[in-house]
């Protein structure tokens, strides 16, 4: 039976839930929130979410995708937080993208009915799980394949599933409820996963089309691994890749592999789009969307941007084409615990507490206490992180830092995808500047 997201409010908090006030232990989330907790009660280091900013971001990215003729299936691995998945589904997202079979199982536990696994599915236990879930006629699932060997591995795993079913039920004619839908993943030399050429991708598609347990429903890929900035060379590589992805879809149509009779017309999918180059995805898809409208050929053009819900003060602020429309909806707080030199202070948050893979935290302000009004903290930078400490330094050699032992520094974060796995519960304030905690968001890592 699916869990209800509302039931998370009945989970009981414990002393092991880091960052929460000591008095929260033993209370349910609902009981704790009824006491109107304030940020000042929480323990540092702490990551805090902004409810208003998340709602605005969710509405913004949804409207942007729809205006470009695309669906949004945001990447749920960014937060692994069912409450935040629900927010985007209620805003109009047509499903979730996920990265691992375990994440898919979590999403199914909360009743998510439309899932794209942006990865290969080859482990026999995971194949058995998906095969069982496909008995639900309302469940829509698709995964990616990027080689003939991947197709072979899926077929072997599914044969093992059917063999186990035969033995358990004594039914020699047992069959899957329905084939597993797959998309051929196009990659690029030097990229991440994906077929390394259009010709290789076509070969994979032909192999899938010959399968009795898999069904070809489209093409997909990830352009974000091909660039890390918005320089002209990076943009040119991404544009070239996305053109190839659309060309692959057209080639499969020409080969009669994506036509009514083989699959339903509205099941044909083309998917791309992280949160860095989504404007280039829309640009590449636009001519094909217009041509489809003229010919009546139907395709679902799916954007998977996951970081747009939170945005950030670092990597995505610097690379997202929607930076003027989105706003950072997460920040961290860490306390000054050492001030050994005039230009150096050590904070009580480090690599185990704060994301750092796409840039170090950015100092925003400082106050005498958590939840108090902050004054701007300028001419200072976090220059390094240890496991549990951040090095806050004055930007000018010999300059003093305007912080004292016990002060709380607010930090802008970079890369939402590695920010959420640090905590089981993240406090939510209604808006920036508020210290009233209105919710706790539960993560499932």
TrEMBL record:
InterPro entries: D-amino_acid_metab_enzyme, D-ser_dehydrat-like_dom, D-ser_dehydrat-like_sf, PLP-binding_barrel. Residues 329-430 form the D-serine dehydratase-like domain. It comes from the Bacteria. This is D-serine dehydratase-like domain-containing protein. It comes from Agromyces aureus. The lineage of its organism: Bacteria, Bacillati, Actinomycetota, Actinomycetes, Micrococcales.
């Amino acid at each position: 039976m699916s869990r209800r997201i509302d039931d998370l409010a009945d989970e009981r908090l414990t002393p092991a839930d880091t960052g929460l006030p000591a008095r929260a232990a033993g209370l349910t989330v609902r009981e704790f929130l009824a006491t109107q907790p304030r940020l000042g009660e929480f323990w540092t280091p702490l990551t805090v979410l902004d409810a208003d900013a998340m709602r605005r971001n969710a509405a913004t990215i949804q409207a942007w995708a729809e205006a470009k003729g695309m669906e949004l299936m945001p990447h749920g691995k960014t937060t692994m937080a069912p409450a935040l998945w629900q927010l985007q589904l209620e805003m109009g997202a047509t499903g979730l993208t996920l990265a691992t079979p375990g994440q898919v199982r979590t999403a199914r536990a909360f009743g998510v009915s439309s899932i794209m696994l942006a990865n290969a599915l080859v482990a026999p236990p995971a194949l058995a799980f998906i095969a069982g879930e496909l008995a639900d006629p309302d469940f829509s699932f698709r995964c990616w394949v990027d080689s003939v060997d991947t197709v072979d591995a899926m077929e072997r795993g599914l044969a093992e599933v059917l063999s186990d079913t035969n033995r358990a039920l004594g039914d020699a004619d047992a069959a899957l409820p329905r084939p597993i839908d797959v998309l051929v993943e196009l990659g690029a030399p030097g990229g991440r996963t994906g077929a390394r050429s259009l010709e290789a991708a076509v070969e994979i598609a032909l192999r899938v089309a010959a399968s009795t347990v898999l069904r070809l429903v489209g093409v997909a890929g990830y352009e974000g691994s091909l660039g890390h900035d918005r320089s002209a060379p990076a943009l040119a590589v991404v544009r070239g890749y996305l053109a190839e992805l659309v060309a692959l879809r057209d080639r499969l149509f020409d080969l009669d592999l994506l036509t009514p009779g083989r699959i339903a017309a509205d099941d044909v999918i083309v998917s791309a789009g992280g949160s860095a180059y989504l404007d280039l995805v829309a640009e590449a898809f636009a001519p094909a969307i217009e041509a489809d409208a003229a010919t009546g050929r139907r395709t679902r053009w799916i954007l998977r941007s996951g970081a747009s819900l939170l945005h950030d003060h670092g990597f995505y602020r610097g690379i997202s084409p929607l930076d003027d429309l989105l706003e950072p909806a997460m920040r961290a707080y860490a306390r000054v615990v050492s001030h050994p030199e005039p230009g150096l202070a050590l904070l009580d948050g480090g690599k185990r507490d704060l994301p750092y893979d796409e840039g170090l935290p950015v100092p925003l302000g400082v106050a005498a206490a958590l939840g108090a009004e902050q004054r701007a903290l300028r001419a200072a930078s976090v220059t390094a992180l240890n496991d549990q400490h951040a090095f806050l330094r004055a930007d000018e050699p010999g300059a003093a830092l305007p912080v004292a032992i016990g002060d709380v520094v607010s930090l802008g974060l970079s890369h939402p995808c590695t920010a959420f796995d640090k905590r089981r519960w993240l406090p939510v304030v209604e808006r920036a500047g508020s210290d009233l905690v209105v919710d706790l968001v539960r993560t499932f890592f």
